[in-house]
Design brief:
Largest sheet: 4 strands, mixed
Structural class: alpha+beta
Shape: globular
Number of helices: 5
Length: 183
């Protein structure tokens, strides 16, 4: 990637994150990682090799887990905000990007609303349930929130998972969400 493209991508990503920070929500509390325990020493000369971590996720299981996450979000939205699950086409690579859209319970059709593009953590992550209070707060303040499940996100299909670009096209996926909100 040329230096100019990298700078442009970094700037777009920073602008997207700045929009989220503008909301003024307190950061997600840190989760302390468990302290690893020392493995027991083998009692014989032959050391067993650990099972290798799988290179590929179980896509069927990931889809089931995502369906459960979607149900949790729908239940958490009831009485607080309107939730819709959509897909839109990214400007990079002609990829369909799934996204959550949250709106205040009462929206005036003639009034424009402020909007946020909510970028989830982890390159292999998704919109985690610990964001519920923050997105509820944003919609209560009148914001429309779109949360793209950009390329590389887990819980969808092999095509989305394999399309990861580690900081390149994912940014285009997120920036494309702004176009969707404007429409």
């Amino acid at each position: 990637m040329a230096a100019t493209q990298l700078t442009r991508s970094t700037t777009r990503f920073a602008a997207t994150l700045a929009a989220i920070v503008y909301l003024g929500a307190s950061p997600v509390p840190a989760v302390q990682a468990p302290v690893p325990q020392q493995a027991a020493r083998p009692t014989h000369n032959r050391v067993q090799a650990e099972a290798p971590e799988p290179d590929r996720p179980d896509f069927a299981q990931a889809r089931r887990q995502q369906a459960e996450t979607d149900r949790v979000w729908r239940a958490a939205s009831e009485g607080f905000m309107r939730m819709e699950k959509i897909t839109y086409r990214s400007t990079a690579g002609d990829l369909e990007v799934p996204a959550f859209v949250f709106q205040p319970l009462s929206t005036e059709s003639t009034r424009q609303h402020p909007a946020l593009v909510w970028v989830h953590e982890n390159i292999r992550g998704h919109l985690y349930e610990h964001y519920i209070p923050y997105i509820r707060d944003a919609t209560a303040r009148g914001y429309v929130v779109i949360a793209p499940e950009y390329r590389g996100s887990i819980g969808y299909d092999k095509q989305l998972y394999d399309a990861i670009d580690y900081g390149g096209a994912e940014i285009d996926d997120v920036v494309s969400a702004v176009r969707v909100l404007k429409a």
